Hints:
Blueprint: H1 2-7, H2 16-21, H3 32-38, H4 41-51, E1 58-61, H5 68-79, E2 83-88, H6 99-111, E3 118-122, H7 127-135, E4 140-142, E5 161-162, E6 165-166
Parallel strand pairs: 1-2, 2-3, 3-4
Antiparallel strand pairs: 5-6
Helix pairs in contact: 4-5, 5-6
Amino acid sequence: MSRKRFIGGADACSCVLGALLMGRKPVGTSPHAAFLIVGDTVELANEFDRFVDSKTPRIILVDTFKDEIEEALRVAEALGMKLNDMRLDTPGERGGVTPGLVREARARLNQAGFKQVQIVVSGGLTPERITLLAEAEADSFGVGSYISREPAIDMTMDLKEVAGSPLAKRGRIPGIIENQRLQKIS
């Protein structure tokens, strides 16, 4: 899929192995799982900023625990001018990323003095959705299965439990889902 993304015109890939096989440096954001393990968006953003090379863009997910706009403003306040992008990846169970959400995020960031922060949108993107979200002022798009042109197997790598306790990002039901077709591997 990563190869097909580059052939299709994508300028970056978040899959480490896929990017390396194409001779590129992987680019992306921290996964929701990292936020769930740490427990707070701003805390993880600060740790990311502290540990990652200063040349690596600060692209922070803002939809894991709280209202996306509230989290975007909290992260922007914490990282200031070092914050490059905020990423919206609201799950379909909560309506997905909408043009209204993008417009509100852009307006609120601008009003708070964070005009430099770009808005990255991901999750279930199609050409039609990209057009609508671009018109709402989304700056870039994390396109997953659609661009591969292969029949998609829609899946996520969401954590649903941390240290034995049910925990999930907003919009997902926490806790392990039993599936008799799967075999647990220890």
